[in-house]
Design brief:
285 residues, Rossmann fold, 13 strands, single chain, eight-stranded parallel β-sheet, 8 helices, 20% strand
Length: 285
């Protein structure tokens, strides 16, 4: 297993910024649309790479059958990366790139990675307002400052979403206390159902196969990306993008992380301990 790297949580922001993870999840969604009409295609592998779940200690293993190497990553970390990558992909699809004002509601690794993905991979982001943490990690604040992106830590959700045209739910939030601004795109990356007041005008999901029985109809993000759905109807509509598949892994996405780890010298041999003296776990301070 010496050829297998273990990617640690505090290395994820650099891996996320150093790879085109939104493109990886877009490719997966487009392939899903193609495979829907030809089930045999759904078994196609990426160059002999396979993703194995539940390999112990809540870890996921990407393994190359032809190369004898791979990547270990925690399932929760991969879920946070996938949520951030899908968030960036949805923002590209639905939000005008001229000026993007972002509100992120939530804390922890998922919120941090969502901000990193938006700042790195979505053009036009001018300001980020965060509600959840009491303090933003210095490395993230420096990244935003270096990119010319303003940062505000809001005391309540209503203050965070004021004037935003992109609202990201990256952690559990109380139902009351804020309302989606007119014309906003709300991305629910929590993996949990959310009720918005007032109701939204359009709903999109990343995988319509995961819609619960009896749920109202929703368009598929993959259909929008493939051009088989017109997407947003008017600029004043409030859109909800409900990411149902944040916990579904993804070979192409994980392979992007592996390539980023190789390029940037991230990760440790699989047998090494995941913690070090300066290990921060990628979480908010």
């Amino acid at each position: 297993m010496s050829s297998v790297l273990r990617l640690r949580a505090h290395e994820l922001p650099e891996a996320l910024a150093g790879s085109d993870v939104p493109r990886a999840v877009v490719d997966e969604l487009l392939w899903q649309e193609v495979a829907a009409s030809c089930p045999a295609l759904s078994t196609r592998r990426l160059g002999g790479w396979r993703l194995h779940g539940d390999v112990g200690d809540d870890l996921v293993l990407l393994y190359g059958e032809r190369s004898d190497c791979g990547l270990l990553i925690s399932a929760e970390s991969l879920k946070a990366v996938r949520g951030a990558a899908l968030t960036a992909a949805a923002a590209r699809a639905f939000v005008s790139p001229r000026v993007v004002t972002v509100s992120v509601l939530g804390s922890g690794l998922a919120a941090r990675l969502s901000i990193t993905a938006l700042a790195t991979h979505v053009p036009g982001v001018s300001h980020v307002a965060v509600h959840g943490p009491t303090r933003v990690p210095g490395a993230l604040a420096e990244q935003l400052d270096g990119a010319g992106i303003g940062l505000t830590v809001a005391e309540c959700g209503a203050d965070a979403v004021f004037g935003a045209n992109l609202v990201v739910l990256a952690g559990p939030q109380p139902r009351a206390g804020w309302r989606p601004p007119t014309g906003a795109v709300v991305i629910n990356a929590t993996g949990r159902s959310v009720l918005l007041d007032p109701p939204v005008d359009q709903v999109f999901v990343d995988d319509r196969r995961l819609l619960p029985g009896g749920a109202p109809p929703a368009a598929d993000l993959g259909q929008v990306l493939a051009g088989t759905h017109p997407g947003r109807e008017t600029n004043d509509d409030v859109l909800l993008v409900d990411l149902l598949g944040v916990a579904s892994g993804g070979v192409w996405l994980t392979h992007q992380l592996y390539q980023a780890a190789l390029r940037h010298g991230l990760g440790v041999p699989a047998g090494a301990p995941a913690t070090t003296e300066d290990y921060q776990g990628g979480a908010w301070s």
